[in-house]
Amino acid sequence: MKPFYVTTPIYYVNDIPHIGHAYTTIAADVLNRYHRAVGRDTFFLTGVDEHGQKVEQAARQRGISAKQHCDEMYQPFQELWRRLNIKPSAFIRTTDADHELVVQKAMQRLYDQGLIVKRTYEGWYSTSSERFWMEKDLVDGKDPDTGQTVEWISESNYFFLMSRFKEQLIGHLRTHPTFIRPKSRYNEILGFLNRELDDLCISRPKNRLSWGVELPFDRDYVTYVWFDALLNYVSALGYLKDDSTNLRFWPANFQLMGKDILTTHAVYWITMLFALGLEPPRHIFAHGWWTVEGRKMSKSLKNVVDPHILIDTYGPDIVRYFLLREVPFGQDGDFSHAAIISRINADLGNDLGNALNRSVALAARSFEGKVPAPSGDPTPEDQELANKALAISAKLGTYFDDYDEADETNSKNILQFSSALEEIWTFIRFINKYIDQQAPWQLAKEDKRERLATVLYNCLEALRYAAVMLAPFMPDKSEQLLTIIGLKPTCKEQGDLIPQELMWSTLQQWGGLTSGLIVKQGEILFPRIEPEHIKTLLREILTQAENEDKALKLFMDIFPRYKPGKAQSLIQEIMTPDSVTKTGPPESSSSTSQKMAKSALPGPDRELEYETFARVELRTAEVKSAERVKKSNKLIRLVIDLGDEERQIVAGIGLAYTPEELIGTKIVVVANLKPATLMGVESKGMLLAASDDQDNIYLLQVDPSTPPGLRIK
Ligand code: MSP
């Protein structure tokens, strides 16, 4: 079998990774796992881009050396890949000595061939944004980005004669219509090549930028960061090492990247390969961008999705599944917690979880928890289930394989992860349909044991197929699924990526599951997500809402099954400062929110040690000022005098009291409560009030002569 090679872009270490980075890397990992499961020798490369201006600036801002910055900042990437079950074959850093040497050797080679030449460049240079601008782009003669002055400078630089390869590149595109995917991006690049193609400036004088690979033929310059970075795809394979150009994994089958860096790959990189006498990769795939709840992800909007929070909340496999399932690869997508939770509750819990639970329960009830042996000739329905399993597992290759031929008809499937998952789900839904049709509970009642055994065997075997097909996407969950149906996934050799039981070869014949295995009961593969399970996250999401109506809408988007009344009380509970820290089993969904809020407090019949009570710092306070929190009808912001200090607290008593009537009152507050932010306003403590079943609120007030700050004990 031919080897398989997939790459991701190498990420700048000027920042920590977000879901955009995770997206490409998960996609590459899925491809790598699939091809490994099929039995190919594979190589999956990812890494970090450590040179250049952005990184140098980031280090400068932190007041440390660029090297030290890089030595720290590559680690969060590796850590995230580990947590996401992403297992690259190699992780490259462009400051690796081996890589730097390859960059220099490649440069020298092109220089010797006359494909890199020195030229003088004149133009408007902006020191503030460290780049040249065209005259037409200046605004009032100044840098259009920074508004700072620009100066006319003349600078010598080295240029790669990229324009010489324009026709060869157009020719390659024409003879390889599936080279760039999706098709729209292929057309975009052809359009780009219709215009004149400039040569590429590949050096930076050291007096402007010193953080880069020194040019081997001129020590006053470093290499332009893209020229250095793109070479990682071959340097990691050992290119130009011992002067051999026989690269086992080259050309790459797939090079994945976001749409914003397609031109650098499709034009710079491919012409570089032509110049170096290397073949282009088989396919370049440019995926779309993620927005968050409809908005561009950006630091200033404070809406950058931290993949660690997603992993903590939902688990790594669900993050993997969601990102690839939700949006067709190549299109832009919108991230929302509502979407991820509905995927968990519907696809994973209802469809797959249900098929599994029903089968395991049946095995427990009727076959002492064992996989039964099938008997008799298969019925047409049995046959249909088996045929579907075989057909779908065989078809999945069309989504993950690359095409040697210019085969445009089949190529619409290329890397359509979401369609591949949809195919698997058609099968999973069919398992449920098969169970409904065969009505095994009825068979049990009628004591048709042989038929019952066959039906159950078929369900468990179908679930085994589902596990193997899903394994590239959800490696942990697939292993867990196999263990639930009685298998013990093990690797043939230490360090193998895929356990034997998840190899594609186990799908060659229907009936691979051994009878007699003991199924594992009581394990839930995909627990339903309820508001109580994700309190901390929900609190964060709801805090971002501008007002209570928006908070309610957000909540209802995430949990559409809730009635608004119940949702409102739950929101209130979640936004109560101390509710988040409470742990314990989720409330039963039948209890009302009232009950839930109350049951979260110690009941009156519980005996409390005095020491426990004494840990609560209750103090008297005087309300100095009060005002409503913007866009909230319940929350009031109070400044209180605690004797030795003044503090701000936020209280949900706005329906019962006006700010004016609160000013001057003497109240009781919990002074040592962990600070919390309510509707964007920080609260350092909590006042005490009573409420009845109708949610009427009665503020606890002390004798008006009480001095503020006294401890209540
Ligand atoms: N270092 C260069 C790549 C060099 S490859 C030889 C680079 N690095 S980057 O860290 O800025 O970006 C890496 C990738 O993240 C790009 O593929 C980009 O498309 C992707 N994304 C950044 N934000 C994204 C989203 N919001 N959504 C999806 N992908 C996004 O460019």
Ions, cofactors and other ligands present here are: 5'-O-[(L-methionyl)-sulphamoyl]adenosine
The description of the largest β-sheet is: 6 strands, parallel
What is the tally of beta strands?
25
Radius of gyration: 31 Å
Give the overall pLDDT as a whole number: 90
Distance between the termini: 78 Å
Helix content: 40-55%
Fraction of residues in β-strands: 15-25%
Class per helix and strand makeup: alpha/beta
Describe this structure in words.
The chain has 713 residues and is α/β, with parallel strands linked by helices. The protein is 40% helix and 17% strand. The protein is built from 25 helices and 25 strands. The protein has a six-stranded parallel sheet, with helices on both faces. It has a five-stranded antiparallel sheet with strand order 19-18-17-20-23. β10 (214-215) and β11 form a beta hairpin. α11 crosses α12 (316-326), α13 (337-366) runs antiparallel to α18 and α20 crosses α21. It is flat. The chain starts with a strand and ends in a 14-residue tail after the last strand. 5'-O-[(L-methionyl)-sulphamoyl]adenosine binds next to β1, α1, α8 and β12.
